[in-house]
Amino acid sequence: xxxxxxxxxxxxxxxxxxxxxxxxxxxxxxxxxxxxxxxxxxxxxxxxxxxxxxxxxxxxxxxxxxxxxxxxxxxxxxxxxxxxxxxxxxxxxxxxxxxxxxxxxxxxxxxxxxxxxxxxxxxxxxxxx
Amino acid sequence: xxxxxxxxxxxxxxxxxxxxxxxxxxxxxxxxxxxxxxxxxxxxxxxxxxxxxxxxxxxxxxxxxxxxxxxxxxxxxxxxxxxxxxxxxxxxxxxxxxxxxxxxxxxxxxxxxxxxxxxxxxxxxxxxxxxxxx
Lengths: 129, 134
Prior knowledge:
With 129 residues, chain A is α+β, with helices and mostly antiparallel strands.
């Protein structure tokens, strides 16, 4: 993979409505018993953003391993939030034929304010190494 | 809300059973339909010992433990590395993920927790950490 992708920002994805029904479905799946939105919920949106990124670069999902994930919140998510996610390639390292891709995805609300930043490390396993 | 937590406190470990049904439900709710999380055929074809849990499902369980310890306090920062797989056999019991935790610091209204997330005695998340507002 070419290091020129570092710093590249992909087109925003969204807006995505954080609906009470979707939050309840996600909460049920993880056994979450609180009224608040679970802290890992943004992965539902990050997935869409990440798939667009993988498509664009022609990377195959089955060769991608999730290395690290972190969420930093400016405020808790709430039902009714309309979030737009924007993925930026933060870093790229090559180790043993694998590409280690660092991404940073921002989630902004309808007023454009930053709500959450999700940073992820994706390992793209060298296919034809 | 004021939490009765002090630096150095060890938190009551939380254990969660994980079955194939849980993975199917999580796949649907999260939109991650990678077949390595539901098909033994696909999982073994790519060299895995069998169906494995979504890393984000394991992380979600760690988030549940944090909520249990802090009464659902708002999370400011949360994350970790995916260092080992959680293999989920096709049995009624499935497997068990255990989340232990220690209070690292309490300052400026923020509580920092260091977690230890294990399955079959092996750490499955690297350096998992949570910061909550309390």
